[in-house]
């Protein structure tokens, strides 16, 4: 075997994030320790040994702040606290300590584009009236028309419905998401200062960094006459000059340069990753070293199992990272997209943007378009090996390591996602709850027996969301219903099956730690080729993705119906069996050490 470099984290602790595996926890659906039906912070602490064994470098916690849950917690009532339904600050401190003791970093989600309408400052803004300093912290405007009863613009918010809502004194406030999520006015110095306070608060409580929600949305310019020329969903994201009134304005970068100064006061400097849905040519700005440092690359999350799409995404992702002086990120699933084990088991559409087919499938409760779970799982196994040998950071979404498919048939009246009920009148979209169903930990604790697959205890325990007098009563049902087939994917069942998805992830992460070179170069191998074969039965085209890292660590994935040759070398790990002749079958990846 060629020489093996130590990994980046080992050589410079301040750069741990450059090629890390970051595991996303959606806390309300991870593990409930009290029987409230909602996952809690103590549940994350309880599962640190599981995460350690899995081999992740960091966990990113989706919002766990006090929230009325108009948008799954991305509507924050109080940025410097834990939702009492999820625990206390002491629980957070214990989590940070336990994670650090296990060598796992903590990344918290910060939501700076909007608060919730239950935030103290929003209530003060409504009470303060037009022209008050309290109102200036948000974006209030007079309406149009003789009585001002028309919204200031005709913009539609992200989850449907108007982007402006009227308050009793007649003014309107802007919300790019639900009406419970008023947008902050980042021109207001108090808002800026308060967020700096929040950043320091979490860093002082042991957080190692931040995932920055809607990072491209903060700076806005509404002092202009042409606002009606813009619609705010979908289009105009391609503006590349920083002049769109709402998104990716040049001034947004001043905010992050200010944050970076705060981050650099810490040792090691705090880490941050931007969620910025901007034109690829502008993404590098967020990732530059004097700003947030890293930006999500969502290309894998958007695409079907098509060789050429992945190949282009890899080339572009690496080029963009180089431009920013950062490393790339790879994301197949998160809390906003249908789980990839299901996406890959549906008919594949090369040009599908934002997986429209998967959305249609959800809309039909998974009853039309046949989901081939076996195929989806085989491809998900191949995909994770292809992803984990790439230079840069991999973001793994909770349950992905169990190979969980999307739950497509949650009844409409049990959905929580505003995407579903803001558009429910025409039932145009079912939303994101199918990937947010509470995790199955124990196969035997089936929902048929009133169990929760070990998500919740059988009886309530005093703690997060449960009072002392309620202790001993039967637990609440999980906040989203778990299907009976979750038993097949339960962590304990997969733990004891050497061939399970969980054990593949464990082996892959372990090997990644030993194999990951410090440099981020990638070389395409001779075996790498575009489709030269007939289309597969479901429209999938063939081809091979084959690359090597500087130390000879190689990953080869076959998308084609015909088995592919492998280069000379030693096989380290395979996502599935090879053919009897030692060839690589369709939808399979091997890791090799090349001679
Ligand atoms: C981000 C989050 C998403 C949320 C939205 C509004 O896109 O990932 O879940 O709905 O921001 O905060």
From TrEMBL:
Q: Which family does it belong to?
A: Belongs to the glycosyl hydrolase 13 family.
Keyword annotations for this protein?
A: Glycoprotein
Q: Which Gene Ontology BP terms does the record give?
A: oligosaccharide catabolic process
Question: Glycosyl hydrolase family 13 catalytic domain: from which residue to which, for each copy?
Answer: 24-436
PANTHER family associated with the record: ALPHA-AMYLASE FAMILY MEMBER, NEUTRAL AND BASIC AMINO ACID TRANSPORT PROTEIN RBAT
SMART domains attached here?
Aamy
Any one GO MF annotation of this record: alpha-amylase activity
Spell out the InterPro entries in the cross-references: GH, GH13_cat_dom, O16G_dom_2
User: Per the record, a Pfam family?
Assistant: Alpha-amylase
Q: What is the official name of this protein in its record?
A: Alpha amylase, catalytic domain protein
């Amino acid at each position: 075997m060629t020489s093996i470099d130590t990994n980046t984290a080992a050589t410079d602790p301040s750069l741990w994030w450059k090629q890390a595996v970051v595991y996303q926890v959606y806390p309300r659906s991870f593990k409930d320790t009290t029987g409230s039906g909602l996952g809690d912070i103590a549940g994350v602490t309880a599962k640190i040994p599981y995460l350690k064994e899995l081999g992740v470098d960091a966990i990113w916690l989706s919002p766990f702040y006090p929230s009325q849950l108009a948008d799954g917690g991305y509507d924050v009532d109080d940025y410097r606290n834990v939702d009492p339904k999820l625990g206390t600050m002491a629980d957070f401190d214990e989590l940070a300590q336990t994670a650090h003791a296990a060598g796992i970093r903590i990344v918290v989600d910060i939501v700076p584009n909007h608060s919730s309408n239950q935030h103290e400052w929003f209530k003060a803004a409504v009470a303060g009236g037009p022209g008050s300093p309290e109102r200036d912290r948000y974006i209030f405007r007079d309406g149009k028309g003789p009585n001002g009863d028309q919204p200031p613009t005709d913009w539609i918010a992200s989850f449907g419905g108007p982007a402006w809502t009227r308050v009793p004194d007649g003014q309107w406030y802007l919300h790019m998401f639900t009406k419970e999520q008023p947008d902050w006015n980042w021109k207001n110095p108090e808002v800026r200062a308060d967020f700096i306070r929040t950043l320091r608060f979490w860093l002082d409580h042991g957080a190692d960094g931040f995932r920055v929600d809607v990072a491209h949305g903060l700076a806005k310019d509404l002092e202009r006459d042409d606002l009606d020329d813009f619609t705010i969903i979908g289009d105009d994201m391609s503006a590349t000059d920083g002049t769109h009134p709402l998104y990716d304005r040049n001034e947004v970068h001043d905010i992050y340069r200010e944050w970076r100064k705060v981050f650099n006061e810490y040792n090691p400097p705090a880490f941050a990753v931007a969620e910025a849905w901007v034109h690829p040519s502008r993404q590098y700005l967020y990732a530059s070293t004097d700003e947030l440092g890293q930006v999500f690359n969502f290309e894998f999350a958007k695409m079907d199992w098509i060789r050429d799409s992945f190949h282009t995404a890899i080339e572009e992702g690496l080029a963009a990272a180089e431009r920013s002086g950062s490393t790339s990120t790879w994301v197949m699933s998160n809390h906003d997209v249908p789980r990839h084990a299901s996406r890959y088991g549906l008919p594949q559409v090369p040009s599908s943007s934002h997986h429209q087919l998967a959305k249609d499938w959800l809309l039909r409760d998974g009853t039309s378009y046949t989901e081939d779970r076996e195929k989806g799982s085989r491809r998900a196994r191949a995909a994770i090996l292809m992803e984990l040998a790439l230079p840069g950071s991999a973001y793994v979404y909770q349950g992905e390591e169990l190979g969980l498919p999307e739950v497509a048939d949650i009844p409409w009246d049990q959905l929580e996602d505003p995407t579903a009920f803001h558009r429910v009148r025409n039932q145009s979209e079912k939303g994101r709850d199918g990937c947010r169903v509470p995790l199955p930990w124990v196969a035997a604790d089936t929902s048929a027996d009133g169990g929760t697959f070990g998500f919740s205890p059988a009886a309530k325990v005093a703690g997060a969301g449960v009072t002392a007098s309620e202790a001993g009563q039967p637990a609440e049902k999980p906040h989203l219903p778990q299907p009976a087939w979750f038993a097949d994917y339960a962590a304990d069942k997969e733990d004891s099956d050497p061939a399970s998805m969980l054990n593949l992830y464990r082996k892959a992460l372990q090997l990644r730690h030993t194999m990951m070179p410090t440099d981020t170069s990638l070389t395409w191998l001779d075996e790498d080729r575009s489709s030269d074969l007939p289309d597969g039965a479901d429209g999938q085209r063939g081809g091979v993705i084959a690359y090597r890292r500087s130390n000879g660590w190689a990953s080869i994935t076959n998308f084609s119906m015909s088995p592919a040759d492998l280069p000379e070398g030693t096989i380290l790990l395979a996502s599935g069996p090879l053919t009897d002749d030692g060839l690589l079958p369709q939808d399979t990846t091997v890791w090799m050490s090349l001679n």
